[in-house]
Specification:
The chain has 221 residues and is of the alpha/beta class. The protein has 8 helices and 7 strands. A 7-stranded mixed beta sheet has the order 3-2-1-4-5-7-6, sandwiched between helices.
């Protein structure tokens, strides 16, 4: 969800020090901005490039993207896939799918992306027992992260990556009980608990990076 930046000047410097977004990504950012306050749900541009690099470095052929929105994360993964690879992306709504598909096609990756509508837990359950996947990326309902996390780990091949977005929740994970509103407070508590569980999970090697609103990358042993 939202990008957590304590220092806007430093954030701008970091973004400007990355490879600039190409016209397709720039267009997608512009179109997403038109949806209003929900714009903050979009994967930050600097993070999108990071996801592509991870995918390329891993030689990934199958990626599961939990939380489609306007499609930037799916696009980023699709650009990094090995030949013949695919991204399975899911969301509970098709409200912004036209924007996503338009830009997937412009980027020439639409044939590599499969959209599934429905709860993420259902999509993850459908994939259980099938071919192991290389990456699972979770950027969706924060209260459901424990469920997504537990369902995702068995799907990964050894050496595969579980990537969780927004693990800092604008810093609220530091003092969840200090959050005034009930729903954000519950989300902060949930995310703080997930962060602890990931760090202690013996199946994974886990690192948390201060990119945007915090990104955790856990490699399955």
């Amino acid at each position: 969800m939202s990008t957590f930046r304590r220092d806007e000047a430093m954030s701008g410097y970091i973004t400007s020090s990355c490879t600039p977004p190409d016209p397709v990504v720039a267009s997608l950012v512009e179109r997403t901005a038109e949806v209003g306050e929900l714009f903050e749900m979009m994967t930050p541009v600097e993070q999108a490039g990071f996801l592509t690099l991870l995918t390329q470095s891993l030689g990934a052929r199958t990626v599961v993207d939990v939380g489609t929105f306007t499609g930037l994360s799916a696009l980023s993964f699709a650009r990094g896939l090995a030949p013949g690879g695919r991204v399975i992306t899911c969301d509970v709504t098709e409200e912004w799918l036209d924007i996503a598909r338009e830009h997937w096609k412009l980027a020439g990756v639409d044939k590599r992306i499969e959209f599934r509508r429905g709860p993420a837990w259902k999509t993850l359950a459908e994939l259980a027992g099938g071919e192991k996947v290389d990456i699972v990326f979770v950027d969706a309902d924060k209260m459901s992260y424990p469920r997504y996390y537990q369902a995702a780990v068995p799907l990964l091949r050894p050496g595969g990556l579980l990537i969780l977005d927004n693990v800092l929740l604008k810093g609220t994970v530091l003092q969840p009980d200090a959050v005034e509103d009930e729903m954000p407070r519950m989300a902060a508590r949930t995310m703080a608990e997930v962060n602890v569980r990931l760090a202690r999970d013996q199946r994974l090697d886990t690192v948390m990076l201060p990119i945007a609103d915090g990104v955790t990358i856990a490699r399955k042993k």
